[in-house]
Amino acid sequence: SGPQAGRITPLTDGFGGDLDPTWVPTSNRIAFSSTRDGARHLWTVNIDGTDLRPLTSGPSQDERPALSPDGQTVAFVAVRGGERGIWLIAAAGGPPRKLVNVSPVSGLSWSRDGTAVIYAAGAGTWPGLWSVSVADGQTRQIAAPGAVGEPAWSPTSDRIAYLEASTTGQAPVGLSFIAPDGNPQSAKSLKAPPALLGGFTNGMMTWSPDGKRLAITAQAAATSSSIWLADPDAAVPFQKLVELPLGPRIRGLTWTSDGALIVGQYDSTSDIVLMAQDATAP
Hints:
This protein is mainly β. The chain has strands spanning 8-10, 19-24, 29-34, 41-46, 53-54, 60-67, 73-80, 83-90, 97-100, 109-110, 116-122, 127-133, 139-142, 147-153, 160-165, 174-178, 188-190, 205-207, 214-218, 226-230, 238-243, 249-255, 261-266, 270-275.
């Protein structure tokens, strides 16, 4: 806390188009997407920026990696063979495997038991919440209220968080929750802080390893980006962690095992930065 809160430390050089970080606790490495070889592929690197290794290659566009709960498998969104879909690859490297041809409009998140991957994709008028089985690629829709963005399954409970945009354009983007079975009695919504006029517009989020809070970004057009911490069970659920200078935008957000945040930040260049964990007062 104090002067160290929100302190930002660059982890990559800002010239490789580095985005979409996800923490790999089994190896203390980061998996991320990068255009450093010309196309957007997946790479891994040590937390100190050393020992950079390609994870995917070839005539493809690979992005939005998400690590399985056991740390062994990376799910990612890819355009391969002219088709967009969700693919899997071992975190240690190897041949990728196509899971399903779908067109996610969000990042991916694993079920806490590692048997499914959830994502937001078209479901009629607005995006809905979907799950795909890792075993057989079968998809099913989860009946979540409203328009769904950036779903994230808690690592410690059967609770899915997602950013809910208004389907009428009258309300800011808020934070909502639903159980994996879509039971409407499990639905819960939290309004964004009044200081965020558009709410968590163009946001991304990730659960802390202990499942107690989420880190969420807000980045409405023509405003500075900010990162907030959300404790859905607290009387005051939102606390601002940091506000970035006008310009940089965020794509990718992940917690380290010890509670720091790693952020993919882009402007005219893109890099991955380490952010101190504690929140400052809003």
